[in-house]
Design a protein that fits this description.
With 544 residues, this protein is an all-alpha fold. Helix content is 77%, strand content 0%.
Length: 544
């Protein structure tokens, strides 16, 4: 069975765009690195403020939806029942949206802020330590998940309530640009932009998770972490992905997500119980207080004074402002918001597909509250434990990160956690590596599923994209990730940051159009409280 037909225009244009992006990075890595750095510098320094306004705006819009009269609107109609149980549903949206990245950043992100804190704070001071533990919660918190949730609402409403058998951003923009434009060239452009943005965002995630897994395998088998080991990691991901593709959405992604949930619970519970428990609780409590107290300032922090100083210094040296050093928000907050924006349409499409029977309010709560708390648990337990080892003198995490050994620092943290009780470092590391592998495979699987859905002409509720189609986009994701890592060399983080920031720029405009389109549909279909012009049949019972 071949599955639904592909949309040849979207498929081939997207493929050509991706090849034009990836191939030069592999053939000319040094030149590609220069171009990526310039693109990153120009975007963050010139348009960084726009990313900040967009994310806080998304958070405000979702508060309006959740607390307003449309909060009880149910995807699939008033009698629709959820397709998945609540734990499976939350696990699927969390694992798809986060992947192995939360294991990477949740363990080590604080070390970057510890050495290079915001607000002009002295590096490695007590104040820098407190902010280092706090900023991760901000970057992986409410506004970040609000960006994820923004496209989910119009896509879920279009698919389940308006019964459009497509999962495309262009269709969700039809309320503003019109059906003719959505089905025509403007719509094709929107969908290709989405596919390019998703591959850039997922490429960043895989590009960060792969070195961490390579470092774990190197530690377990006494190997050297090399680029070829990175290739092997992605090949293993592909094998796990193959099982999931063959099994389909119900048995594939759902099973991997459920396994992930139990492994997450084990690793975090072990670390919490046998690690520095009181330090974890105290530091997390203090960080939440700092975040609540300074949320508005952090949301709008652009650091214009430092930007001005960099501009003056660059001019004195005869350099372009784009080539000058970046500020804290340019390196971190703007990068993060761009990364979430690049990923957001994918999350919207995937979560829309699995959210039949949920209300608007339930979906917002699951993503903003559930997603934030899920990330915070990683930062609170793994991150604060890693910080404890730094302060205790067990490990010099800051020095390792400064030397470009962040993946090795993460693995050293996991081994040190296991060895605190018994010589349990290696068994815990094995569990950690397996967890990261499944996390990455889940991300690759759900991303390939979404890409193939967008490049498919039509889908019904019971159909899925062709298996070969999903395999193809998984290979494309792996190729882009490897090309970014290869072009970035030792400073692959900068290349990955550049990819996310640049591809997110046009997607912000698309997400604004989708939001306006969704509001228009809601006002048309629910002109007054308790009244609806659309009658939707009930959905079949839930499948756990």
């Amino acid at each position: 069975m071949q599955g639904p037909k592909i949309d040849k225009v979207i498929f081939w244009v997207a493929l050509i765009v991706i090849l034009c992006f990836s191939v030069p990075l592999v053939l000319f890595p040094a030149e590609g690195r220069v171009v990526l750095n310039k693109a990153l510098g120009w975007t963050t320094k010139t348009l960084g403020w726009g990313y900040l306004w967009f994310t806080i705006g998304a958070f405000g819009v979702l508060l309006y939806y959740a607390l307003g009269k449309f909060g009880n609107v149910r995807f699939g109609g008033p009698d629709a029942r959820p397709e998945f149980s609540l734990p499976s549903w939350v696990a699927m949206l969390f694992c798809a949206g986060i992947g192995a990245s939360v294991m990477y950043w949740g363990t080590i992100e604080w070390a970057y802020y510890y050495s290079g804190p915001p607000f002009g704070i002295e590096p490695k001071s007590r104040e820098a330590t407190e902010w280092a533990a706090t900023y991760g919660l901000f970057h992986w918190g409410f506004t970040a998940w609000a960006v994820y949730c923004i496209p989910t609402l119009p896509l879920a409403y279009l698919y389940w309530n308006r019964k459009r058998p497509v999962l495309r951003l262009s269709a969700a923009c039809a309320g503003v640009i019109g059906e003719r434009a959505a089905r025509g060239i403007p719509g094709k452009i929107i969908d290709v932009l989405f596919m390019f943005g998703l591959i850039g965002g997922v490429g960043t995630s895989i590009g960060l998770g792969t070195p961490m897994l390579s470092a774990g395998l190197a530690e377990l088998f006494g190997l050297e972490r090399t680029f070829m080991l990175d290739v092997l990691v992605i090949a293993i991901w592909g094998a796990i992905f193959g099982f999931s593709v063959y099994s389909g959405l119900q048995k594939g992604i759902k099973v991997l997500s459920d396994i992930n949930l139990w492994l997450i619970v084990f690793v975090l519970a072990f670390t919490f119980l046998f690690g520095p428990t009181i330090f974890i609780l105290d530091t997390f409590t203090n960080s939440v207080g700092l975040l609540i107290q300074n949320f508005v300032e952090m949301s709008f922090y652009v650091d214009p004074i430092s930007k001005g100083e960099h501009f003056i210094a660059a001019a004195a040296e005869g350099k372009s402002y784009v080539d000058s050093g970046g500020t804290f928000p340019e390196w971190w907050t703007i990068f993060y918001w761009a990364w979430w924006i690049a990923y957001a349409p994918f999350m919207g499409l995937f979560v829309a597909r699995i959210s039949r029977g949920r209300t608007i309010r339930e979906l917002i709560a699951a993503e903003i509250v559930g997603g934030s708390l899920g990330c915070w648990v990683f930062f609170a337990i793994l991150g604060n434990t890693s910080m404890f080892f730094q302060l205790e003198g067990t490990l010099d995490m800051s020095a390792m990160v400064a030397d470009g050994q962040a993946p090795e620092a993460i693995i050293a943290t996991i081994v040190a956690i296991g060895d605190r009780v018994l010589p349990f470092g290696v068994p815990l590391l094995i569990v950690f590596v397996v967890l990261a592998f499944i996390f990455g495979a889940t991300t690759m699987d759900s991303s390939a599923y979404t890409l193939s859905s967008v490049a498919t002409e039509e889908q019904t509720e019971s159909s899925e994209p062709a298996r070969w189609h999903r395999f193809f986009w998984a290979i494309a994701l792996a190729a882009v990730s490897l090309s970014l890592m290869f072009a970035g060399g030792k400073d692959s983080l900068k290349a990955l940051q550049a990819a996310s920031v640049v591809v997110a720029l046009p997607l912000m405009v698309v997400l604004v159009i989708m939001t306006a389109s969704f509001m228009k549909w809601l006002k048309e279909d629910y002109p007054a409280a308790g009244e609806t012009r659309i009658s939707v049949a009930s959905s079949p019972p839930r499948r756990d």
